[in-house]
Amino acid sequence: MTTQRSEPAQNADERTMLEGWLDYHRQTLARKCEGLTDAQLRTASVEPSALTLMGLVRHMAEVERGWFRKVLADDDPGPLYHTEEDRDGEFHLTEADTWAQAHATWQAEIEIARRHAAGFALDDLSKGRSRFTEEPFSLRWIYTHMIEEYARHNGHADLIRERIDGATGD
Q1: Which residues 6+ apart lie within 8 Å of 61 measured at CB?
Q2: Do residues 66 and 114 touch, judged by C-beta distance below 8 A?
Q3: Alpha helix locations (H) across the chain?
Q4: Structural domain tally of the chain?
Q5: Which Gene3D superfamilies does this UniProt record tie to the protein (predicted)?
Q6: Terminus-to-terminus CA distance in the chain, angstroms?
């Protein structure tokens, strides 16, 4: 299966453009993971790093959950993978961790994020707060941050994928 990736509109309103860029980067990460086995998706970038493609997907599920559920909507179901003892739990994979599970969890968090965001205007402030500040965030800020977060991690994904099988691309 090839993930379809749509170029963001070049002349859309601000919200459509922000949502388009966010979806573009979500789709880019999915494409970086396509065609690999679970073992390849669990392959670390370089010792001693635990950074893997599957770990990045699990991390982005946590990030989607944190910003759109906890911060934006003040709906805190708790973390998916990390704990107080293991703050980077999403990157600590075992042989039991599968792409099917990681991908399904990530996609579910994206759908919940979309539903929450649909109830806010760009200038509306979040109902919840992050662990970094007691100040609320506008939906515009959250969208911009999420685009930055995906873009940064897609750069990591490029390098990991190239290490695994030599595949490069946009």
Answers
A1: 80, 81, 90, 102, 105, 106, 108, 109
A2: no
A3: 14-33, 38-41, 53-64, 99-118, 139-165
A4: 1
A5: dinb family like domain (1.20.120.450)
A6: 17
Global confidence as pTM: 0.94
Question: Encoding tokens for residue 130?
Answer: 């992050």
For 14-58, the pLDDT digits (tens) are 999 999 999 999 999 999 999 999 999 999 988 889 999 999 999
**Is 118 inside a domain boundary?**
yes
Rounded Cα–Cα distance for residues 72 and 158 (Å): 30
In a domain, 40, yes or no: no
Q: Which domain holds residue 108?
A: 47-165
The 10s digit of each residue's pLDDT in 119-158 is 999 999 999 988 888 899 999 999 999 999 999 999 999 9
Q: Which tokens belong to 50?
A: 């635990």
